[in-house]
Design a protein that fits this description.
- The complex is a heterodimer.
- Helix content of chain A is about 75%, strand content about 0%.
- By secondary structure, chain A is mainly α.
- Chain A has one domain.
- In chain A, helix 3 runs antiparallel to helix 9.
- The longest helix of chain A has 28 residues.
- Chain A is elongated and about 55 Å long.
- The two termini of chain A are about 20 Å apart.
- Chain B is mainly α.
- Chain B folds into 2 domains: about 160 residues, no CATH class; about 30 residues.
- In chain B, helix 3 runs antiparallel to helix 8 and helix 6 packs antiparallel against helix 8.
- The longest helix of chain B is centred in the last third of the chain and has 27 residues.
- Chain B is globular, with a radius of gyration of 20 Å.
- The C terminus of chain B is likely disordered.
- Classes of the chains: A mainly alpha, B mainly alpha.
- The interface between A and B is large, with 49 and 52 residues.
Chain lengths: ~170, ~200
Amino acid sequence: MESFVNYWLTSPFLTRYMNYYPWAWPLAEISHFAGLILLIGGVGIFDLRLLGVAKGLPVAAVRRLLPWGVFGFVLCVASGLCFVLGLNANLPNRVYDVLTTDIWLDLKLLFIFLAGINLAVFYLTGMSRAVDGLGPGDDAPPLAKVIAGTSLFLWLAVIYVGRLIPWGI
Amino acid sequence: MWQLLESLENSGYAIWLRESPSVLAYATVLAAHALGMAILVGLSAMIALRLVGFAPRLPLAPLERFYPLIWVGFGVNAVSGLVLLSLNPTKFFASPTFYIKMIGIAVAIVSVKLLRTSVFGHPAGLDRMPVPMKGKVLAGTMLASWGVAIVAGRLTAYRFFTEWRTVLAVLTLTVLLVAGYKAARRLGLSTKATGQGRATPSSGF
């Protein structure tokens, strides 16, 4: 297991490249920040509307901001993979050791996983379709509000524990 | 003045907050700075993106309701930023990059404020006519200044040699992403949303 993880989650190519170009690591960090901003901006406004902030917005129109949230998530996954696969450009630790000992990284991955489950619940319970018909001033169903609140909490928690990762290594 | 900053940097408070192994010390102040940024920049950038032409069917007037939250994010970052500054004042005040970050934030915050008075100040006709030019310019200025502030903010942790190379890399990546987006549009992979002004309900992206 240990050698399997270290083999598949380490990219010698990426490590060499991130070592060689001094801009590679900070570029990944900046992309990670830009990504989390777009994620919280797009997904956050959608969640807040369902929770009742800015009720004058029709939900179907707010959905048009979600592609920005998805783009932000993709930016974060891409840059996040650079941190993991190219870890040795910055630290001597093995990926397996970090994954098994860093409580903050584990919590972050758990929260992202739960956010995914939450999103699946949003679609599978029919809430996604139900909220689409909400016009200006309409109140979201209680279940949709619970899902929106959970999403908001989880993504903010991802940022909080994510920033703690260096303290857990 | 510099001696005052040095004594602040070497005070028991600063040393404890910097060097405490507890994640509730330095790490949590850094995390608060990231959370405040996500709220402040996330919400204001979405409003700016709407104003420069994305999601044109999204009504503008109700977006003003996000302003109190935007100021909460700003408050969190002003406080956490001052704490972080107090831990290493001689480093930051000697860094040109730090001043660039401050200018970026100042310009962005002024744009956010001016947008509220110039665009959201007249809610009645807001969603019946195209976004005024002034609103578009302010929104574009805000997005660019947030970009400057975030890039400069991250780069205060690096040496000058790394800094300007990273700026070039960020600009290159931005150009590539914009070109990729335009190419995808041209190939019809993404539908061009048309129709300025009036909000009409629609489904899908």
